[in-house]
Amino acid sequence: MSFSDLGLSDKVLGAIDAAGYKTPTPIQAQAIPHVLARRDVLGIAQTGTGKTAAFVLPMITMLEKGRARARMPRTLILEPTRELAAQVYESFEKYGKNTKLNVALLIGGVSFGDQDTKLVRGVDVLIATPGRLLDHSERGRLLLSGCELLIIDEADRMLDMGFIPDIERIGKLVPFTRQTLFFTATMPPEIQRIADNFLHNPVRVEVSKPATAATTITQLQVATGREDYEKRATLRHLIDSAEDFKNAIIFCNRKLEVAALHKSLVKHGYNAVALHGDLDQTTRTAALDAFRKGEAKLLIASDVAARGLDIPAVSHVFNYDVPHHPDDYVHRIGRTGRAGLTGTAISLVAPFDTKSVAAIEKLMGTTIPWMGEPVAAGEPGERPARQGERGRGGRSRQPRGQRPQESRPREPQQRREQASPRAEAPVPAPVRQRDPQPYRERAPRENVEPDTSHLPAFLLRPVNIKA
Ligand code: AMP
What we know:
six-stranded parallel beta sheet, 18 helices, alpha/beta, Rossmann fold, globular, 37% helix, 2 domains, binds adenosine monophosphate
């Protein structure tokens, strides 16, 4: 099968040629002819399968005829995150370079006025995150009654992010007679319900998960202690002793953890950037650019922020936290070992993670080998309270007066770690060790953390302040 068999226009075929693509990917080969035949499509595919081009290429072909009217976009693409929306925008620049199309991006964190000016000029393709789109629509600055094609991308991620009510509202603003393309990586019952609601007699196109296709990823799990300072020491050790290290994405389960780990790694002299939902758009874009250009070697990210982003070839993925959903694990490790390159994915496993690992192994149908000794059987499903979390009654889960050494505040602990090598957290023996890596640009130590060794111990103790 070649691209010229799919019914795409000559201008689009020219752009595909310029992009250097030789053959369509399975999702492209299966979906494009149906999209061009104006059928609704239910696409079950993840990023990395070429799914963006599967809808962008036929869209450009269809939009070559006709013109947009002011404030009435002809087509609408909904994306869960700003980064994904920006990425789809870039693919219109790439594949639409021979076609004159007005493409507008409506995402949060960008000036409302500039977006409005674009809408007034008339838009062929509107790419939006749900919240900002509804903002424009509610202000009466946008009419969706002329929209002929609606694309809902990453629907399961929309569900995770709580966007489904917004999507349903938007669905009522576009004409009933439109064509709809609906993409999701997984099909939980709620997504099936929405798909049934949005699609009329759809063609179902499904491609395999990257994790089952990519056999180039070496997966490992490594035992770690349950406390943050122990996990951080384990992670630093893994980074320092990693073989063939070029760059890594480090996944955390929560935004707060992303921010805290980023701060800690930078303090320890690592060249790291962070990506999570609470950062403003400029910071997020700058972080991604720095990582893409290789200026930063470590990207610490949450699942939501990193989902679907096209980040080329990373050598390592570290799961600082084992994900709660096995599907997220598949996505995370799919960030490495792309396009035939080899990659390594290492998960830090604390005693309370054993249940989650079992669920991942069940989904993947494999066992993930241990690097060093397996984790000691602990209290599966339980994890220690973290910063900002409270147990019942608003108190920390640890009874007062019985706090073990490791649950003291993190920073003093870190300082102790640096002051005395004997205080370092136990780190499992890695499979292979080698000298520290040259990529690590350490900041001068005196600028990293103040020396607190002269302080009496009581000054380093946590202080409970009642609200
Ligand atoms: P996506 O799954 O849409 O995020 O695409 C993943 C990557 O595959 C992007 O970097 C695309 O540029 C690339 N890609 C898409 N289609 C093809 C193709 N037919 N041949 C080679 N690369 C492709």
